[in-house]
Predict the structure.
Amino acid sequence: MPADHTATILMVEDDSMVRYLVSEYFRRVGYEVLEASDGELGLRTGLEKKADVIILDVMMPKMNGFDVCHQLRQNNINTPIIFLTSKSEEQYTVAGLEGGADDFLPKPFSPRELEARVKSVIRRSGTRVFDEPVAGRIIRGGLSIDPEAYSVTLNEEPIQVTPIEFKILELLMSNPGKAYSREALLDQVWGTSYEGYERNIDPHVMRLRAKIEPDPAKPTYVLTVWGIGYKFNDKL
């Protein structure tokens, strides 16, 4: 890990042994770690402290991980979120991704596997701790993104987006008029197709539209290609 940047992780987990083992592992490999033992404390810490990644257990006392994630996103906290879940049922994975999470990891897991996921979401976020240099600003129809600054503006007004929303917008704006299937978007944004979860891209597009479209019901920028997926309007 580069010496000029220490990434900060917020670890929200009610199991004290899991929390201790994961936190100590990340500290040993050079991260700063904030800890929270329940959902309410995790939410408060996430709102008050700056973290590069939030690791959220799903089933916790006082407030579950899904509600914590929802409240953070409602408060414009766009920090990448990784869910830890002991539930293997598809509904939990779907709920997590639709709720604004960036990745998920089922229990049991190895700390190295979790670290790989952390590095992956950091690459996709504005922190770019482990990323290669990226291209310059893209401007189309009053909408502008700057991958180096990890910023989005609409008519010069800043727009707060999550890492996944940014990656979707960056990909579509870089290739106006090109239709991307939901599966292709998952592959490009998450780095894997997550087979069977193609529709999980839709909630992220809906939230993105709510932030950038004058009328989200009649989108101007991110257009639906019926039967396929989405594209960026090449007429702008």
